[in-house]
Amino acid sequence: MAKLARSVFSVDVSGLDTALGRPAHTRIADRIRAAIISGALTLNARLPSGRILAKDLRVARNTVDAALGQLVADGYVIRRRGAGSFVAGRLPMRDLRPRVPKRATMSKIRNADPVLSQRAQALKLYPGHYRPISTLPFAPSLPPVDLFPRKVWNRLLSREATRTGSDYWEYGASNGLAVLREAIAAHSAAMRATHCSPEQVIVVTSTQQAVELAGKVLADPGDSAWAEMPGYQPVQHCLRAAGLRVIQVPVDQEGLDVRAGRILGPFARLAYVTPAHQYPLGYEMSLKRRKALFEWAQEQKAYIVEDDYDGDYRYEGRPIASLQGMDQNGCVIYVGSFNKILFPALRIAYAIVPVPLIGAFVDAKHVADGHTALLTQGVLAAFINEGHLARHLRDTRAFYDERRLAFLEEAETLADLLDFGPASAGMHVTGIFKDRIRRADDRSVATECARSSVMVDPLSKYGDIARRGLVFGFAGASRAISRSGLQVVRRAIVAVNS
Amino acid sequence: MAKLARSVFSVDVSGLDTALGRPAHTRIADRIRAAIISGALTLNARLPSGRILAKDLRVARNTVDAALGQLVADGYVIRRRGAGSFVAGRLPMRDLRPRVPKRATMSKIRNADPVLSQRAQALKLYPGHYRPISTLPFAPSLPPVDLFPRKVWNRLLSREATRTGSDYWEYGASNGLAVLREAIAAHSAAMRATHCSPEQVIVVTSTQQAVELAGKVLADPGDSAWAEMPGYQPVQHCLRAAGLRVIQVPVDQEGLDVRAGRILGPFARLAYVTPAHQYPLGYEMSLKRRKALFEWAQEQKAYIVEDDYDGDYRYEGRPIASLQGMDQNGCVIYVGSFNKILFPALRIAYAIVPVPLIGAFVDAKHVADGHTALLTQGVLAAFINEGHLARHLRDTRAFYDERRLAFLEEAETLADLLDFGPASAGMHVTGIFKDRIRRADDRSVATECARSSVMVDPLSKYGDIARRGLVFGFAGASRAISRSGLQVVRRAIVAVNS
Fold it and tell me: How far apart are the CA of B498 and the nearest CA of chain A, in angstroms?
């Protein structure tokens, strides 16, 4: 019990704390209260006697009595004559939630503006911390969560969690569980024509982490990186967070304009691209451009970061080759993620890196966060190896395809306003404003739509300075919802443009 | 089935791929083989007819037949007369594991030395990717894994995983689940006298991630940071990975020597310290030094990163106050981790940050990896709130204390060689070489010990240039093992010093 008292009630009554001017008995009462609220002391538990507490905490008996008196008065502790003191059987109502210091106490502020690094200040421009789930049309890129076979997943979870041995409990390798790396190498070879050994797979938590690792491994602060304009802004922030200067390279119907990149930033250390399905315009990078990109990388000894964010969803035409599979020179870092195709809370993605870079990526991942959580890796490996991933992809592909076709049919009613880009893959389609409304403010259109609970992303949000338009996610909307949603969009465009 | 063929067999037979000079039939055979090995095509599954495959893949019937012929010859596919082609019922022996390209094919190397960033090259100095689990004496800081109540954890895991609703499946907030942040705020207040609201808690994956986020938020590349010498090297690598210059500030029996820090790097943006139990020397930072550190931070508008890596394990004397709880000016970032006290594969740690920095930390965490996996956060919150964490800490504390006492008794046999530092907390103790052997090479001693399966860390590994000695983890060794292990150490010291 003495040890318990010292630990659970660990109250600093030395000079360190009295220096702060709070009386010892208040401090002791606060700590015991916190232990009760946190569950460290269970309800109805018997407390050590005042004498023992005083001895263990090396304070006067009076001090302990004052602390206990305060707790009794507040309803946390009950005294039973002859039996001692006990934690109350139920907590005072106001403290069912942990106690939060009042704003005034809590805001220990040195000055109103904290001293932030420049890069932290730059991150304030980040478009949003996270996208709260929305079933509204046309919130981009959110898979309907009820398509995921939770029961299957949970069965594998239980099975793996109860395995004997310590593989899921001890430190793991920074590049990920071998069984998962093998499954990923086979899966991405089968689905995306990548060409790699399991050793080249680095398991990470997210596309963002993969891109940030690539930024760190391949470039130093002050170096520059190509990114697509318009393009996926969060990834550009990752590159900036790694200290890189991001050069916006325009995208046209053939994908990233390599010639423009050579003019804007010939000595960039890496190029971030979405060749299979440009985000957000939807174009596939042409063979000519792929060759030009490889040539530039070869010349500059630069690297290509290929984000294959929705390569598993292709509905029409021939499959699109991955750059990784075409790469002859070991200059492509391929990035894939399971967070979108399975469920966002999963937090498992991967990079496939050229052999000579394996060590550097493992080092960087190790320093970043040690390794990715292991049990989940084991469950995902089983999910892939036992065929559930392939089945889930088949099911969701069919489902999205149906919604895609419905959306495209309904979207013909907007053909006088928007030029829709390719929609043969993925879960979104972009409509560019036609010439006669090309100056309309797409952000205002989006705001106007939001008033009627229709979510469209303005193309401006993706950093485009040449075009304006709207990005529609079609995976979340039934035909009827698509129809009414598109009517809202039409009214919004007309209202903003008039 | 057509869709299946396009997707599962997705074979690029366009110019993109034939440009690489591999015949289409080989490519098709490779992809089908990969689909079989990966489980995307299940054993005994019926394949589409050659005619349908040819149509879907837009290749000649001959090409498909050649591919299937190859697969039949290799044993992956079986032809049943009149019934069609089927995946074999069992895979050829050599391919029970995914196919790995041969080294020569796999090493697409542009040049023998890849172009790495300077910071990636610096990481090559990293002392090791991960510490494979070892039950050998005296591997530092590894809790005996069998003390962890796996059954309790797994029960909570099952319960939380099968909860209805989507909280554990959708995107989550970047700062972590509210219920976990509340539990952490209460726990750290109760155990470590921190003083914060749940809003100030940022859930991360590891101490490393917390320190790297702090480095990014508080400093720009080229800025400098204080770290302890000797000190925990992996964290110093985190700071370097964030672009910071690390200034080694000497540690003495009062902790970090603030005056030396002011001379070596007066304008550092942050100071990384382990005030409760200096790693690895074991000293507690004195009140005088704490005040000096606060004064410096106040003057420079710098921040203090407090790594409280084993604050939950204190065996003797009064509890040590956290700097966070003493902080009057909002200049402390407190870092705690559950990976060591529960199990290393968990990957949940946290930072408690001053109110004005909350937004910047959330931004940085969002960009780094979105958010930490959610289900595990929910399980941990339940584990804390239902009293299991407090119980586990009590159990392990008693266990470690027993081992600590046994180790210290046995270690008296080395009192002529080593000056042991404080051992009133944590899971390790450091022995400094006594004067007469102070020049002995501690790395050689460690190597010599390793030959007899005794693991000690040389103090040199922690970057000390003034002292030599050995770091012992005592949590993994019984009394008998401690005794024989210490005999090995004695012999090694004598051998190296003679």
Answer: 38
